[in-house]
Amino acid sequence: MLMDGAERLGERLLGEVEGEGLSSLLNSLRELTTSQKDQKAYFGIPELDALIRWPTISIPQPGPASLSALQHQIEPSSTLQPSLPIPQESNATAAAPPAPPSKKPTQPPLLELLSPPPSHHPSPSGKTSLLYLITTLTILPPTFLTTPLHGKNSTIVIFDPLSHFHIPRLTEIVTHYITTALRNHDKEFSIDNDAKSQICTLVKTSLTHVHIVRPQSWSALLEALQGLEAYLFDPKRHESAHRAVRAVVLEDLQVWRWGVLAEKEKETNANANANAMSKASSTLTPLLTSLSRTLQTAIITTSQSPSAAPLRPAIPLSLSGPGPGLESPVTRLVVTRVEVLKFGEGMGVGELEREREMRREVVRRGRFAVEGMGAEIGGRERARGFVFRVGRGVGVEGEEENV
C-alpha cells in the first residue's frame, strides 16, 4: 500500500512536469516557426525579404527558480523507499508550476533605402520604382480569379513631400502585374471584356488602400505622424479601417535637412550646439517606433546620401533617444541604377555594333541593383542583393515576363 501511494504520487508529479514542459516547448516552437514564415514573406518579394535583418528569437529557458521547483517535484518520486513516510502535500509549500512564457509579437522590419547623391550618380536610382512593387503586393489580395497574386490584402501609408509617387504610374504597374499573373497561371487565358472589367474593379478597389500624405515642412511631417493612428482608426475617413497596415513609408528624407539645419541656426538656448541631425533623428525615431509597435507595421524610409562615401541616410533612425527604442535592427539597403560600361579600347566595328545593341537593351530594360550594407544580412552570410527591372511593370530580374 505504501509503495502504491508513492508510485501514484510520483506518476502524478512527473506527469505534471512533462505536460508543462512539453506545452511550453511546443508553444515556443510554434511561435518561432510562425514568426519565421512571416519574416520570409513579409513584403512578398523573396529577394528583398531575404535581406531583412530580424531580431534573434530564442526559445525561453526555465530560470533557476523553475529548475529548483522541477527538481523538488521530480526527486521524491525517484528516491522514495518503502520504509520512508510518504511526503504529504501542503498548499503552503507546494511549488507552483512555471508560468508560460509571455508572447511578444516580433517587431516588423525597419528598412532604410539609400541612393548616392545626384553629383555622384545623376540617373534615377529606382527607390520609388521598388516602392511601387512593394505597394502592389501590399494592396492586392492573395488570389484573383483562382490565380495566385501573393498579395497581402493590406494598406500602406506614404509620406511623399516631392510628389514622386504617381498614382497613374502605380495603376499601370498594378494592372500589368495582375494581367501578367493571369497569363502565367494559364497560358490559354483570354482577357475578354468581362475579365477586363473585373481587373479594373480590383485595381480601383485596391488603390483606395494607398494613403498618400504630402507634408511641406518638417513640423508638418511630425504633426502628421502624431495624428496617423487616429486617422487610420477612424472608419469614417477612409475604407481601410478593416485592413492591417503593412508599411508606413517616408520618402525623400533629404528634403528636410536644410530646414532642420536652419532651425538650429535660430536657436539661442543651451541646445543650440547639439547636432541638428542627431536631434532630428531622436525626434523622428520614437514616433516611427511607436507607430510600428501600435500598428504592427513596417517602417520604410528613403533618402539620398549627403555624401558619396560613406553612404548614409539623410536622417537615420537613431539607436537611442527619448521614447521607445528600436526593437528590430535597421536594414539599410543601397539602390542604384546599373550603369552601362564604357566601350573597351581596341574594339572592332563589328564588336562595337554588337555592344551598342546590347547597351540599348540594357538601357531600355532599366536595370536597378539593391545591395545590403554590412557584412551580415538576415542573421547569416548570404547573397547581398538583387537586380530588378523597370518597364511597363516592375519585377525582379529572372522574372522578365513580369516586366
TrEMBL record:
GO terms for biological process: DNA strand invasion; double-strand break repair via homologous recombination. PANTHER family: DNA REPAIR PROTEIN XRCC2. Residues 97-108 have a biased composition (Pro residues). This is Uncharacterized protein. It comes from Dendryphion nanum. Residues 65-125 are annotated as: Disordered. One of its GO terms (molecular function) is four-way junction DNA binding. Residues 68-82 have a biased composition (Polar residues). GO terms for cellular component: microtubule organizing center; Rad51B-Rad51C-Rad51D-XRCC2 complex; replication fork. Gene3D superfamilies: P-loop containing nucleotide triphosphate hydrolases.
